[in-house]
Every structure is written in C-alpha cells, then in structure tokens.
Amino acid sequence: MVKESIEEGQLSSPLIVADKPCENGCSGDGHEEMGGSSATSVLVLSTLIAVSGSYVFGTAVGYSSPAESGIMDELGLSLAEYSLFGSILTIGAMLGAIASGWIADLIGRRGAMGFSEVFCIMGWLAVVFSKDAWWLDFGRLSIGCGMGLLSYVVPVYIAEITPKNLRGGFTTVHQLMICCGSSITFLLGTLVNWRILALIGTIPCLIQIVGLPFIPESPRWLARSGRWQDCEAALQRLRGENAIISQEAAEIKVYLTSSVHGDYTGTLQRLSEATILDLFQWTYARSLIVGVGLMVLQQFGGVNAIVFYASAIFVSAGFSGRVGSIAMVAVQIPMTTLGTILMDKSGRRPLLLASAAGTCLGCFFVGISFLLQGLQGWKELGPILHFLIYDGAFSLGMGGIPWVIMSEIFPINMKGTAGSLVTLVSWLGSWIISYAFNFLMKWSSAGTFFIFSSICGITVLFVAKLVPETKGRTLEEIQASMNPLTKFTAYKFLGAYRYCREIELAPEFVFTASLVLFDQLVPTKTADVMVKPKRKKKHVEEGSTTRPLIIKEKPKAHGNGDDDGGRGVGGPESGGSATAVVVLSTLVAICGSYEFGAAVGYSSPAESGIMDDLGLSVTEYSFFGSIMTIGAMIGAVTSGKIADLIGRRGIMRLSALLCVLGWFAIMFSKGAWSLDLGRLSIGCGVGLISYAVPVYIAEISPKNLRGGFTATHQFMLTIGSALMYFIGTSVNWRILAAIGAIPAVVQLVGLFFIPESPRWLAKIGRENDCEAALRRLRGEKTDISLEAAEIIDYTETIKQLSEGKILDLLQWRYAHSLVVGLGLMILQQFGGCNGIGFYASSIFVSAGFPSKIGTIAMAAVQIPTTIMGIFLMDKSGRRPLLLVSAAGTCLGCFLVGLSFLLQDFNQWKELTSILVLVGMVAFNAFFGIGMAGIPWLIMSEIFPINMKGSAGSLVSLVNWSFSWIVTYAFNFMMAWSSAGTFFIFASSGGLTILFVTKLVPETKGRTLEEIQETMNPFSATE
Question: What is the pTM of this model?
C-alpha cells in the first residue's frame, strides 16, 4: 500500500518530521529530546580525561625552555647536544603520527590514549633519572611518540562523543589544555629543578590512565567494529539515561550502511580493508585537501617558529625576551578560551577567517617593524604589540580549529589512515619551519615575516573557498556532504528512516523498516528521485505538507534535446561557482606555474655554490643560466601542437617529466655538460608549461571565475621564484635542485585525479567524455546542458575549417586575435619586466641604495598586489586592470629614469636613491596587478580551438624571444644611459595604454565561444 502510494505520487510526507509539542522540552513519551543537546556529567568527565592528554602535549612542548640551563649545567651537555634533545621530540611525534590512526582503529580511542600515556610516562621517568645525554634523548623520543598519538586521538575521541551543537567548543578544549600545559610548565620551571619538573610531567599521564576505565568508548568506533549493542550503551551513557538516542544511533548505522546500498556486511569488510592508498581517490579528494591544507597553512604561517623562538625574536628586536614571552602567554590563554566559547555560536569558518586575517596582519606589522629598523626609522615602534596581535588571532581559531575539522570531515573507514597522514603532515611542517626559521631570520627578518603574512593571506582564500561550515551538523551529515559518492545514498536512506519514524512504528522496528523501504521503494538512480537533506525545523508545522520524501522528476524544458535521463533536473545553472574539482584541477595545474617560477629563481642563489664545487668560469655559468631561455623557446614552438595532439593533461605531464629529469641531471652533475643538459630540459618543460597551464585553466573554469583562476598562474610563478630564492640562501645547490623537482612530482601525481579539458575532448570528437568532464567540473547537480551544447556546437562549426597551421594565422579573419595576442606579449617584455627583475640588485647599487632592502621591498609588494589582481580580475574586468597596470609601470619607470637623470646632473642627490626605490616598488606593484598575468589570460581566451595550438606556440615563442632580447641588451643599455633605458621602458608603458584602449577587448563574464566569435568573424561568412 505504501509502495503504491509512493509510486502514484500520492505520498507527500515531509522529509523533515515536525516535532510534536511537549511540555518542558521533552518528547511525547516523557523522555528528553533526542540529540543530546546538553552536556551530561559523563560527557564532561570523558572530555576532561581525554584532555589530560592534551595537557601532557603542552607540558612536553613547554619543558625544554625552562629546563635548558639546569640540564646543561648538571650533565655538562654542549649546545649541539641540547639542541638534539629539544628537536628529537618532533621526530618522535612524527613516528607516533604515522601509527596513530592505525592504532586508534585497532584498539579503540581509549586504548590509543592509554597506549600513548605509557610512552609518555616511560619518557618522563627516563628524563628524571638521566645521567647522560643518551637517556635524555631516549626519554624525549618516547614522549614525542606519545605526543604524536595524542595529537590525533584526543580531538577525534571528543568529536565522536559530543553532540553536534557542542562538538566545536568541546573539541577546542584540546588546544586550550595544550596552551595551559605549556604555560604552567614554563612558570613551574622557574621555581623547581628540571628533574622535579619532569616528575610533575607524569601527573597528567597518570590521571588519564586511571580515568580511562571510567569513561565510555567512542560509539562510532564501536559501530565501526560491529558492536552495535555496545555502541548504543555507550551513547546512552553519554547522552543521559533519560535521553532518546534512537535517531542518533540509527544515523550512525545509516552512514555505515548506506555507502553500499544496505549491504552492511560488505560495508564492514570494506572498512577493514582501507589503506593509505585508498585516500588518493576522487571520493576523498575534498576531505584530504581540506584536512592536509589546513595543517600545511597552519604550520607554514609560522606558528611553531614564532613560539619556539619568541624570546630570541624579541631580543633581536631590542625588547625584553622574558617580558615578551609572558605577555604572549597572557594573551594566548584568554583568546583560546574565547575561541572555545564562540566555536558553536559563530561557527568554524568565521573564526578561521578572522584568525587567519589577524595572523596575516600581525606578521605584516612585525615585518614592517623589522624593515623600519633596517632603515633606521621609527625604532621606538617595536614588534611586541604586533606579536600579541598574531598570538591572540592564532589562538582564536587557527590554533585549534584545524584539529577540530580534521576530526569531523573524514568518514569512519578512512579516519585512521587520514588522521595519521594529516597529523604527520602537521608535525613534518612544524619541523621544517622550526629548522628553517633561524636561516630565514639570518637572511632577512622582515622578509621572513612577510612570507608568513602572505601564507596567512592564502589561508583566508583557502578557508573562504574550500573549508565547509560544520557547526550544528552530525559527523555523518558532514562526511556525507564531503563525500560526493555516498552523499545521495545517505540522504536517501535518512529520508526513508524519517518516514518510518513519522508513521509511528515501534522503535525496535524503525531501522529494519527503513532498510526495507530503502531497498524496495526508493529507486537507486539519481535520475528517478531527488531527496534533499534536512532543513531547519522552524519552517515545519505539524500537519503541514512540506517537501515530500520522494520528488518526481520534472519534465525537461523544451529544446534540451537530450535523453540522458534527466540531465540537470532541478539543478543550478552551469558555471556559477568554484567547485572542489575546479579548485583541485587549478591547484594541480599551477604546480607547473610554481615549477616555472622555481626554474627562474634557481640560478641566482645557486651561483656561488655551483661555481665553487664544479670550478665553473663566469662564462660557463652564464651559459648555464641563459640556456634555459633557449629550451623555453624550443618548448614554446612545439607547445601548441603537443597540447592539441595529446591533450592539456598530457602536455602538463610531459612538461613535468622534462622538469624532473632536468632537476635530477643538475642534482647529480659532475661537470658543465650535465648541468647544461639539465637546464635545457627544464627550459623545454617551462616553455610547454607557459602555454599549457593558462589554456587548461581557462578551458575548465566557469566564465564568471575564469579571470581570477587563470591569474593564479602568474601568482604561483611569483611564489615559486621568491621561495626558491629564499630557500637557496640556506641549503646546498644540489638540495635546492631536489626541492625544485617536488612541484613537478606533485603535478605528475595530481594529474591522475583531475579531468581533461572539455573543450579539447569536444575538439577530438569525444562528446560523451566532454560532458562527463564538464559535469565533474561543474558539480553533479548542476545543469550543464547549455554550456555543453555551446561547446559542442561551436567545435562542430570550427571542424568545418582545416586544422590550423602557423601560416594560416596570417589571414584577415585572425588579424584581430593575432595583433592583440602578440602585441600584449611584446609590450609586456619591452616594458622592461625581465630586465628589471633579473638586474634589480645592480639597479639599486648603481642608484646608491642598499640592494638588499630594495629587493625585499619589491618582493614584499609583489605577492599581495598579485593576489589583489586575482580578486579584481572577475570584478573590474581585464581592460581596467591592464590600463591601471600599464599606467603604474609607466609612472614607475619614469620615476626611476628621472632619478638617474638627476644623478647625472648632480641634483637632489639625497632624494634620488629614495626616488629609485619608490619607482621600482611602484613598477613591481602595478606590474603584478595586471601586466604580469593578463596577457597570458587573454592569449588563452581569444584564439579559436582550431588555431589555438599554432597561435599559442607563436605567442609563447614571441614572449620568450623578446624576453631574451631585453635581458641580453639590458646591461648594454644601462651602460649607454641609465636614464634613457628607463624612459624607453616608460614610453613602452604609455604605448601599452593606447594599445589596450584601442584594441584589447573586455572578456570578463563571457564564454570562450562568445569571445572567439566576436574576435574572429569567420562565422558570419562560413
């Protein structure tokens, strides 16, 4: 009967069941409301026992600083031996992190916490009774292993036992207790001996071991292990004896069951077989990106470096290290407490955004204070206030929320493996930053904090685009929404379950009836039904008809013409938002852009090391540096044809392979010939990348986001070059070459997980694959019919024309596109960008200004202005940004030329060096906003698909050729006249303004097909 009514469309039972009225907030049967909205005593006790481990974590981190003098004096340790003692904790933590997820899945959350405390107690006792460095190191390593386990299992356990409306605040207590443990250990260390301090460190370990038998195991781990009765018993203890737990228990069952359409036994078998390789599937891509990304950004924002070296930083800035450290502690604990209180009120995303913005601002001001000290200006403005801004903002959100989200987003079958990976990444990032920090500070204090500030700025973008809001949602709801393959099935089962509850079946039959309804009544194809997730209850009234459990498919609009079974039914319009697939595809693609920048930035920091180790002359090294441009021209000539032949992913794969081979040739070089061969190979790869990356991103991005996404190509190029220069000051040239290969390897792996360009697929006649790729890029529920039809129709029209060759470009129909593409590239290079970029230091020296300060100032403005250009690209449009950028570069070059002219006439000598700085910084800032990336973006938009390969090769070749001409001629021009050189560059900037005004079209908000039809008038005559 039920089945018939559903099939006939008569059933309109709402997906969300209205709550029946009840006095005093209880359910109709006199029990408390389901959901466990209150903090029961068992829940509070369980959390307190768990965060004893967090306190141990903080104690271990805070121990080394106050114990340093006592240990070194009593045991006679050298500074190197004590440094090993301090740093080996991180090595142990990485070992613990690797095993943490597997152990927690094998013996349970309580078992993992008890196991970790055994390691910590052993370690503390080894430290207490140490008589030499060996026992100290063994103890510290053992504590580190315990910390690695605790850093994963504590937030996971708390997240799995708490109600959804309290989970954020309870889980953040983990971070609060770390702060308390570290601060209290620091304070106690000023009063007691180091051995007594280590003995005190065992107290929270013992408290946790004693308390673990009195708290329940995680219900979700018990359910994962198939112990359903124990799961319900644990849930009842946690929610209270009078609470109704049936719906929460059933939702846990639903999530574990629905992933294989009700085959519960098969689910458990699959769960037990999950390995770390299983993480690298599209199913878990978003969860993995969010979890790993937050940890990487947290660590590379500089937190551990700042905490570990706070005293030294204050001293280097001329401030009392002790007073500064105490002030940071005084801010840290109340701000962490505030974050804990706000977690379940304001949500995770707002706190993360506010925290990342605050840390960005704090690091920027610290960098400014160090820069002003270097310029001998405003010395009284020390960094103490800015450090407190950073510390307070970090404690508010970025300190604890990444761990909260890590514990929420991974499904139960992958939680152990994913948790191990995420925790390992966190500790590895911590070690890298802590190790590199002193080298970075030695290179440039201001530059170091500007880097940290930039990374915090990237965090704001990352959170805004990728991190989901998890406040007020069950773990099962979060994981279903993050998992694109089980999302629909889970919602479908939940709909069946809520319907069975509404018809008031006996509680013990609800779950079984839900399975029956799920298997027999609800079709399994998304074309047949669409079940929506739970909405807010305030809109549902008893007896009203809201959204039905099963929604019949709406008839397709006339003219769709496709019988694909309901493509786009009820879906949003194609192309509106940045989906996870588009973001991932762009990130993988711009690994090539980073590789481009790394190759450009390698030769300068590696110069002295290579020349000394291999005995190269200046001429030989100059040839090594310049041969990359020859390789890039070779790559550029072939780039278009290769991209058309093997696809956009294929050419990126080939370019990454060439770069990896090149870097390895350099790394193992024993003479000049292998160096040159490696550099030539990298150049060929870079030449391919310079065309393939912007074209691929432009072809996969929605029209309203294409500009900003494609502009990340230039942004990552800038980042790659800057980071290569910074890292090169602290590592050997061979290691630097190995580091240069990393982004290429990442791209090679990532290319397996992203779709091919739909437009290239349409071009070679693979229309089904084109639509499948487009659906992945736009989202499973998005209506792609209009966009797909436009691409396929335009491509079919283009196919009537012959495949384009270089000579075919010289026809009137392509004149506008060719003039715009080539003109922008020529004007970009003749504006002096590479001449100024390559010889910035010598320009400042010839102007009488400190080159180090000048280059740091240029780097400090380049990254934020490039980011600004990305933001404005799809808001203000291409033409306005190009005009502003060209005007700014014209003004910057004019100011530099004017300063050299005044020097030639011996006028205003005290101002000319400052004028050079202002002009160079202005040039760099305005170039980053528009002229750096927009010519490549427009190149990827304006040529039709049949000519894109040939045109792209030609445009890329012209760019590299003129780059070589300008860089080769620059020194000769400066010898002729420094002022005249920059006035020529300024004139080129002025010509660019006229060129853009008269010839360059606005491409914002238009599809590639619309742009190409207006630029190439063949369609009017064909």
Answer: 0.46
